[in-house]
Amino acid sequence: MLQFVVFAVTIIIVLVAAVIFLLPGSKKITTIPGPDPVDFLEGNFPDIQAAGSLHEFLVELHQTYGPIASLWWGPRLTVSIASPELFKEQSKVFDRPGCIYEQFKPLLGEDSILFTNGLEGRKRHTAYSKCYSSTLSKELIAKWSAVPANDHIPLRRYMFAFSIKTVLQASFGSYFNDDKTIYKLRQAYDFVWSEMENRLLGGITEASRESLDRFDQLLTWALYFLASHQDVQDQLFEELNMVLGDKDVEPENYNDLNLMANDLLLSPTSDPESPENEDETLRCSVLSPFAARVQDVDTELGGHRVPAGTPVIQAVGVVLKDPEIYPDPDRFDPDRFSDEMKKTRPNLSFEPFGFAGKRICPGYQFALAESAVLLAAIIRSFKVKLIDDQVVVPEHGLLTKPKEEIWITLSKRK
Ligand code: HEM
């Protein structure tokens, strides 16, 4: 009997010790500084919710704990990194952590590239990179030319329609020439995207019925910045006329467009990992605030031990708004990307398309080339102005979008 009691007590002690060690609150599990979980199952989700978005939570987290910090993604210990030096340490990791994107699985399916790792993920990434041009910008200019002067135009709605049509035609060909087919797909897409935003951390982001993607947001932000900075818009107009003459934007002349190619939008024809290719639209808008990886082998990050299997958030948006790297970070200023200024910043301080494991966004060249063609066509045809007294507030979710519609007016340039 005594033997049984000793055995039972030993088992209970071992179990209690194991639970204490494994509990999210236990600091023994990591030396990386970070907040305790609010709740065993929810981890720091309530804190993220209170911050307003994951991006805003990460900004606060890194301000408090430094460039490497821990957090609890539900019950899982997760690491977040936010410095060019730490990005370098993680630059070879390819696989994504399923758990960070788990809530999207029922919508996207397990076979989505978002969840595909290893050899298969690499094969599919290469296939995407090869796939992604179009002349749809002319169609939009014709539509806008028919709009009476000073009519109010919903910028986001138009940019969405343009981008989804461009991507669909590039991906699936002439089946998507017809606007009705596109409209049907858009309804399905609206539903899926707003569900995804809803599910990001169990409803942290308000579901916007308007569906959005990164491409139309890039266009929306670029036009918004130009509309709110008339001096930059006029400079761009002059540059376009001087360099292009009667021609359209083409691969041969794009890199002569200094302001457009180097300062507003990065060059789609060159290596995105080069520090020379950086731009103010993607920086200031923080279009895509984070990427994530799962640590493939036991390693050290910033002097801390990180076991294989640990999810690591790469807070690229925090770095794009780091005042040490980009002083007065919320100010839109294309001069930050002058040749002299670029040399002052460390490598990997501008990574809006991701960087790790050569898993950079395969659509980046496509998005930039198409955006350049459309922006050039719009700015050469119209003077774009914001309706007076609009306050444009960014909302950070999976990507950063304006909280509400942005209203513009157009006056014909010629
Ligand atoms: C300005 C617009 C865009 C931005 C800022 C952007 C940004 C990103 C980022 C940050 C990632 C994650 C990379 C990583 O995990 O390291 C990504 C992945 C991806 N993007 Fe984009 N993207 C844009 C436009 C596009 C477009 C237009 C397409 C398609 C035509 C596209 C297709 C993809 C795909 C398929 C992936 C997943 C790649 C993989 O998992 O291997 N993106 N993008």
TrEMBL record:
Q: Which GO terms describe its cellular component?
A: membrane
The protein's required cofactors:
heme
Where are the bilayer-spanning segments?
A: 6-23
Q: Which UniProt keywords apply?
A: Heme, Iron, Membrane, Metal-binding, Transmembrane, Transmembrane helix
A Gene Ontology molecular function term for this protein is: heme binding
Tell me the residue numbers annotated for binding heme: C361
Looking at the Swiss-Prot or TrEMBL record, what is one Pfam family this protein matches? Answer: p450
Recorded family membership = Belongs to the cytochrome P450 family.
Q: Which PANTHER family match?
A: CYTOCHROME P450 20A1
Task: Return the protein name.
Answer: Cytochrome P450
What organism is recorded for this protein? Paralvinella palmiformis
